[in-house]
Design a protein that fits this description.
The chain is an alpha/beta fold and about 325 residues long. It has 2 domains: about 5-175 and about 225-250, 3-Layer(aba) Sandwich (Rossmann fold), CATH 3.40.50.720; about 190-220 and about 255-290 and about 305-330, UDP-galactose 4-epimerase, domain 1. It contains 10 helices and 15 strands. The chain has helices at about 15-25, 55-65, 80-85, 85-110, 140-160, 190-200, 225-240, 260-270, 295-300, 310-330; strands at about 5-10, 30-35, 45-50, 70-75, 110-120, 130, 165-170, 170-175, 205-210, 220, 225, 250, 260, 275-280, 290. The strands form 4 sheets. A 7-stranded parallel beta sheet has the order 3-2-1-4-5-7-12, sandwiched between helices. Strand 1, helix 1 and strand 2 form a beta-alpha-beta unit. Helix 6 packs across helix 10 (about 310-330) and helix 8 (about 260-270) crosses helix 10. The chain is globular, with a radius of gyration of 19 Å. Bound molecules: uridine-diphosphate-N-acetylglucosamine. Uridine-diphosphate-N-acetylglucosamine binds next to helix 6 and strand 9.
Length: about 325
């Protein structure tokens, strides 16, 4: 096989799913995670090094010791309201650390860089639909911190041999269909996660933030993508770069969306019992609708999602949540 892949943030939700798929594909991975929000036992393949992705000495050493052709960079903070309250935490971890990591990559001659970005870079796009050409206008420090990293990557690639793929994630949900790993973030804010926590009794209720949006049922609409399909996009990006593809930026979503009410109806259906749902005011900074134009990722990478089905997404999220409650009860 030869070249190895350095995965930062590989003990987190999306990174751990990508590592599992890379391991299953026979790739050799080195995982760097400071375990501030990740979990050691979510890393199913490769060597785990505990440390920061912005630690130049450590990263420089890892790149020198291993024959790494590709870096996949997941390590980041990602809670939007927290980013509003503590902007420097986000610019420090997401932007400054990425800068240090990129410097190490440049010094070590790393060829490929795959970067976890976000639809939050678009802010509130017109009509709620974002193509990769839609102007970026983040409305919170989280989105801005990721966009600044995109710019650094773009500018570095322009003057070096580094090639990159930027993946702008839409709303990620679900878990490993075999139930080995899933989302474990405490104090989760994501809708499907919150609703599943309510279903297993970890929360008393689920709130609908805003029922007066200009959408068919008045609630927010999002493009929910299963984490397995999102993880697959990283392997497709890797293949694309290794075959000599040019640096690019792609949206990761299915190209259609569901409202908050549709999601909650599905959680209740799959759970087989009603949830306690309360209607509340709009949450600050939420766009009414955010859907990916996902043409480019299919065309460039030949990405073919397998789980574009809300029922499947909710089932896998709920199964994982049930398992997680068992694990937590035993601990
Ligand atoms: C998520 C991502 C963000 C990304 C965006 C892309 C995180 C933390 N956020 O944010 O990075 O840019 O997707 O679309 O990864 N809602 C409720 N009740 C709840 C929780 C949410 O009604 O308890 C509603 C929200 O108002 C929104 C929808 O559900 O309309 C989705 O919200 P959420 O799951 O929090 O994701 P985003 O805010 O879209």
């Amino acid at each position: 096989m030869g070249k190895k892949i350095l995965v930062t943030g590989g003990a987190g939700y999306i990174g751990s799913h990508v590592i599992r798929q890379l391991g299953e594909a026979g790739e050799d991975v080195v995982v760097l995670d400071n375990l501030c929000t990740g979990f050691r036992d979510s890393v199913l393949y490769g060597e785990l090094v505990v440390g920061n992705s912005g630690d130049r000495e450590l990263v420089g050493r890892l790149l020198a010791e291993h024959d790494i052709d590709t870096v996949m960079h997941f390590a980041a903070h990602l809670v939007v309201p927290e980013s509003v309250e503590q902007p420097l935490k986000y610019y420090g971890n997401n932007t400054c650390n990425t800068r240090n990591l990129l410097q190490c990559c440049q010094e070590a001659g790393v060829r490929n860089f795959i970067f976890s970005s976000t639809a939050a870079t678009y802010g509130i796009p017109e009509e709620g639909l974002a193509t990769e050409e839609t102007p970026t206008a983040p409305i919170n420090p989280y989105g801005a911190s990721k966009l600044m990293s995109e710019w650094m990557l773009r500018d570095l690639s322009a003057v070096s041999d580094l090639k990159h793929v930027i993946l702008r994630y839409f709303n990620v949900a679900g878990s490993d269909p075999e139930g080995r790993i899933g989302q474990r973030t405490p104090n989760a804010t994501l809708l499907i996660k919150v609703a599943c926590e309510a279903a297993v009794g970890k929360r008393e209720k689920v709130s609908i933030f805003g029922t007066d949006y200009p959408t068919p049922d008045g609630t927010g609409v999002r493009d929910y993508i299963h984490v397995e399909d999102l993880a697959r996009a990283h392997l497709d990006a890797l293949e694309y770069l290794r075959k000599g593809g040019d640096s690019t930026l792609v949206n990761c979503g299915y190209g259609h969306g569901y409202s908050v009410r549709e999601v909650l109806d599905m959680v209740q259906k799959v759970h087989g019992a009603p949830l306690c749902i309360v209607e509340e005011e709009r949450r600050a900074g939420d766009p009414p609708r955010l859907i990916a134009d996902a043409t480019r990722i299919r065309r460039l990478f030949g990405w073919r999602p397998q789980y574009d089905d809300l029922e499947f997404i909710v089932k896998s999220a709920l199964e994982w949540e049930r398992k997680l409650s068992e694990i937590e009860t035993m601990a």
